[in-house]
Amino acid sequence: MQVLKFGGTSVGSPEAIQAAMTIVQEKIKTDPIVMVVSAFGGTTDALLQCSEMAAAGNESFRELIEAITARHLDAVKKLIPIQQQSSLLSAVKTLCNEIEDLCNGIFLVGEVSLRTRDKLFSYGELISSKIITAAFQARKQPVAWWDSRLLIRTDASFGNAQVDFGRTNELLRDSLFELQEPLVVMPGFIASDGNGISTTLGRGGSDYTAAIVAAAINARHLEIWTDVSGMMTADPRWVNNAKVISAISYQEAMELSHFGAKVIYPPTIQPVMNKGIPVWIKNTFAPQDAGTVIQLESYRNGAAVRGISSINQLALLSLEGSGMVGVPGFSRRLFEALSAENINVILITQGSSEHSICVGVEALFADRAKAAVDRAFTNEISLRRVEPLIVEKDLSIVALVGEQMKSHPGISGKMFGALGRNGVNVRAIAQGSSERNISAVIATRDVRKAINVLHEEFFETTLRQVNLFISGVGNVGSRLLQQLQQQQQYLIEHARLQLRVIGLANSKKIVFNEDGINLSSWKQALEMGIPGTIRDFVEGAIQRNLRNTVFVDITASETVAGVYPLLLEKNIAVVACNKIACSAPYAYYESLKKHAHDYNTGFLFETNVGAGLPVIGTLNDLLKSGDRVHRIQAVLSGTLNFVFNHYDGTKPFAGVVRQAQQEGYTEPDPRLDLGGKDVMRKIMILAREAGARLEMEDIQNDSFMPESCMQGSVEDFYKEMLHQEKHFSNIYEQAKQRGNKLKFVATFENGKAAVGLQEIEPGHDLYHLYGKDNIVLFHTDRYAQQPLVIKGAGAGADVTASGVFADILRATLH
Ligand SMILES: NC(=O)C1=CN([C@@H]2O[C@H](COP(=O)(O)OP(=O)(O)OC[C@H]3O[C@@H](n4cnc5c(N)ncnc54)[C@H](O)[C@@H]3O)[C@@H](O)[C@H]2O)C=CC1
Ligand SMILES: N[C@@H](CC=O)C(=O)O
Q1: CATH 3.40.50.720 fits 464-606, yes or no
Q2: What is the pLDDT of residues 711-741, one digit of tens each?
Q3: Dihedral of CA 666/504/482/422: which sign?
Q4: Is the ipTM above a cut-off of 0.85?
Q5: Which of 678, 680, 714, 744 to mutate to test the pocket of ligand 2 (most atoms within 8 A of CB)?
Q6: Most distant CA pair in the chain: distance in Å?
Q7: Rounded to the nearest whole angstrom, what is the distance from the C-alpha of residue 482 to the centroid of ligand 1?
Q8: Which CATH superfamily is domain 307-452 in?
């Protein structure tokens, strides 16, 4: 025998019923079937509403009953051929009249008892099971109808009756013994007490009926047919990548269901669990899907975590006080006070200091709980031995569930590490000794992020989603967007990384799209964006509260450099090629580093020196591994190197500078390059990374630029350079005559930094440096004879964008 249960959605329409019947007729080929059915979806709620309206004296309950009647008659008309309809139509009509009679009674007395309500509810399943039985008969399928009220025997606890298993099992087995047909249809949810009065089995009732029957008749398996393809690794409404769990143990299923996976209601599987009967969760609307099997053995596929779940609307109650330490009985009195108010405790934690006990309850009961507990401890509160109960609301629980988490070190470390990196504060933690469940209490606003973060962390097949907010879409920014678009698919396939640009900003507009901005049309998206400042942009990033978020600064703006602390405090990583933050007064640079450290968040700015060259990373690796830097000598301006490599007096100096700007090597304001400020910033950043507390004023700058060129606007700067052509040609000619090349060199030694134009002799390490290349020489303890040399293109949109890209990837692995 097999037992198949079809829930409300699976019998919610004539089409769904047809699909369910086809499934049954296919399965019956292997084994006889008991089919347990729910009421048509929504009927029980409608009946409840009728009773409430009637009890409240609202005559509109009649219209609702008319709708219920019409729906069921319509189903008969669609499922049964016209010649066979009449007797069923009148049977359904009679049952619906009984509903109306009952509601009229409720209307007259102005109240509804649980007993009457159970009677009223019973009509939903009675009518649906009768219609489905008749529909099978119309298909010429031999079928019997069992009246659950005669077979499932309960006590008289109306609304949530307790099953008399001894009598029920006997009755079911006797009925099975006498059964002639290969198929039985029976209503779920309903039963009766010893006096034949209708009762109902409480929440998850039809599942429970099916499990009771399956256990009583020793069914080969129980199948729960519903509208999802099985139990999922997480709630699919929150986690796009949630997967169906192919197999799960009873205990895991109970834990997951308890924590909100609404596919089954935990107590319902107890009867089949006791007998080791497998339970399948299958989808009526996609019967070909494999579904989930719930069975005795945990499924050993190596995954320690089976699923992630949550409970919302939690309140945390904390009882604290020095008077509690070492005194027995405090927890007993706390729980007694809650129990007296019928308040269920969902979670309990107590620190070993015994200074506080913390329990989680449904938020709905929090105020009642506070009143009850404060009352119970009035005396201790007045003596200040305990504090009045502390109540925190707007909390949720997220839980990892898995049989094999037991004795598997590292799971909780991974869990809390991932939450911490994403700025999810954990308010309380609970783990039972079964180690089947690790629960963390967090703010409700963080639940979606937390579940997604954990899903990415524990389910390898899941793509890790990285959410980018990019400010600055000029020369470098637009190239980064191009590179991101080009690499998106590669990263999905080879690194299981999904990079999505959620926000874009320039100096005028901002745009957000939580599904990811289409990178082939980002310009139009930004044009159609809204006017907004960088503060609005940052606010948008913070409010979205997405996981694995990276803010990318590709501007040259001081205002943008000023918002990093706001982001780091919210665990949003910052990647910057803008050098302003790291070359701001030392205190700001230091505070950013501290923020990144304190909030365990990435702050990466490799492109601040040498564009895409690995300069800062190399320096940090040297220092972390214990090397000591004595001297840094470097050519750090791509622009100046380009200019002095191309200037030979045949074309004006100003023209070569303009070419450097057109090729994208200069700063947005090229005077920063020509005046040496850009190089000062870079050597200062290197010095700071090497541990020196340097400020810009501490750096000597032997500028070669005539003062007059640095006045006025950028156009004035170009004009004045033309006037000063002689000055530039003289510098060039003198160096040439001595067989030297001109390089703008930065040095850092003995705590002092200097920048300036130098003539470099042939044979010097800096001599052979072409195009827009940079070079950095690190003279260290370990690189004593020959310096460690880093050399290559040090400016340009493409290389800079790829350096920013690499920092983004590093930030996501942080
Ligand atoms: N070009 C290169 O080789 C390298 C450049 N960098 C740095 O890259 C940064 C960007 O340079 P480019 O792309 O050449 O500059 P750009 O002038 O072409 O683009 C700057 C972008 O920033 C936006 N922006 C300015 N103020 C803003 C604000 N308050 N809020 C939002 N957006 C704002 C502008 O609208 C524009 O989209 C600079 O900080 C530069 O130092 C770093 C290394 C190498
Ligand atoms: N303007 C800079 C670009 C990199 O920081 C340069 O010319 O080096």
Answers
A1: yes
A2: 999 999 999 999 999 999 999 999 999 999 9
A3: positive
A4: yes
A5: 678
A6: 118
A7: 16
A8: VC0802-like (3.30.2130.10)
